[in-house]
């Protein structure tokens, strides 16, 4: 029954928990990279599943690991499907961890990685609401365990070639990009008949306030959207999602290989 889920290369060849404790012990740890994906279970409008963020992350990982050879010392950990989604807490189907809970989980996994002899951990995030906390945790794990910790949000600049300028700037949730990606990975979980369009209405005189970046104001989804989305989901297509997913997974693979070879000591000149 589980053959279909676990038959892909990412699970058959690179999924660390499929190994025995002896096999894990025998992995050459000097250049090994562990990959921990953290997603979210939260509303994405009327047309997308609440599993969208985690689904996208897992789909990208399946594509990414197809690019590796058996010689590549990169190991996939089970995804953490829940994230810090308090900005969507008023919407049914949103299941959020508190900041303290997510911090504890990520720290404990980092400590376990170090005890097992690993030196490198990539925290791969596919939910924007996790960003600040995970950036902080990466440094805390580095300090606490000595691990080299990497942080990455899957992205490709190529995506801008296939979406509007407005989408690129303000399509941050449940819009063209995410809908297209889910259409590619799991089309029957998307109801395009309910796809909507809504963008943040910005005051004309606003110059110093943004949703993200160095000039920032705190917001909940209900503060910026009536529909629960920010973007134009009506423009989404499976074909567009395929192009986005291929571009992003290509960049992910390159980044992981670079991380597996990285030594932090090289940052200080002899």
Which helices and strands appear, and what pairs or packs with what?
Elements: H1 3-6, H2 9-14, H3 21-26, E1 33-38, H4 52-65, E2 74-76, H5 99-115, E3 120-125, H6 131-145, E4 148-152, H7 165-170, H8 176-185, E5 197-198, H9 221-224, E6 231-232, H10 238-261
Parallel strand pairs: 1-2, 1-3, 3-4
Antiparallel strand pairs: 5-6
Helix pairs in contact: 4-8, 4-10, 5-6, 8-10
Specify Rg, calculated over alpha carbons. Answer: 19 Å
Number of discrete helical segments:
10
In this structure, how is the largest beta sheet organized?
4 strands, parallel
Mean pLDDT: 95
Low-confidence runs (pLDDT<50, min 5 residues)?
none
Please give a structural write-up.
This protein is an alpha/beta fold. The protein has one domain (20-267): Rossmann fold, CATH 3.40.50.10310. Helices cover 39% and strands 9% of the residues. Strands 2-1-3-4 form a four-stranded parallel sheet, sandwiched between helices. It has a two-stranded antiparallel ribbon with strand order 5-6. Strand 1, helix 4 (52-65) and strand 2 (74-76) form a beta-alpha-beta unit. The termini are far apart. The mean pLDDT is 95. Belongs to the creatininase superfamily. One of its GO terms (biological process) is riboflavin biosynthetic process.
């Amino acid at each position: 029954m589980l053959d279909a889920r676990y038959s892909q290369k990412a699970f058959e060849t690179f999924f660390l928990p499929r190994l025995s404790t002896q096999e894990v012990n025998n992995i050459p740890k000097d250049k090994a990279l562990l990959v921990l994906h953290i997603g979210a279970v939260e509303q994405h409008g009327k047309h997308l599943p609440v599993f969208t963020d985690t689904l996208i992350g897992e789909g990208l990982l399946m594509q990414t690991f197809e690019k590796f050879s058996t010689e590549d010392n990169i190991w996939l950990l089970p995804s953490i499907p829940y994230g810090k989604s308090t900005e969507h807490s008023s919407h049914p189907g949103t299941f959020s961890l508190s900041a303290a809970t997510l911090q504890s989980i990520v720290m404990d996994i980092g400590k376990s990685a170090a005890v097992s002899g690993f030196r490198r951990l990539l925290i791969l995030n596919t939910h924007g609401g996790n960003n600040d906390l995970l950036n902080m945790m990466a440094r805390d794990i580095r300090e606490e365990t000595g691990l080299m910790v990497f942080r990455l949000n899957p992205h490709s600049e190529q995506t801008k070639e296939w979406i509007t300028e407005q989408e690129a700037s303000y399509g941050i949730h449940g819009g063209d990009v995410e809908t297209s990606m889910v259409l590619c990975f799991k089309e029957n979980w998307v109801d395009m008949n309910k796809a909507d369009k809504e963008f943040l209405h910005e005051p004309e005189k606003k110059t110093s306030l943004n949703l993200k970046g160095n000039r920032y104001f705190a917001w909940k989804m209900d503060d910026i959207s009536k529909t629960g989305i920010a973007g134009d989901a009506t423009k989404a297509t499976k074909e567009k999602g395929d192009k986005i997913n291929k571009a992003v997974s290509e960049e992910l693979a390159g980044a992981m290989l670079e991380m597996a070879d990285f030594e932090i000591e090289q940052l200080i000149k002899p």
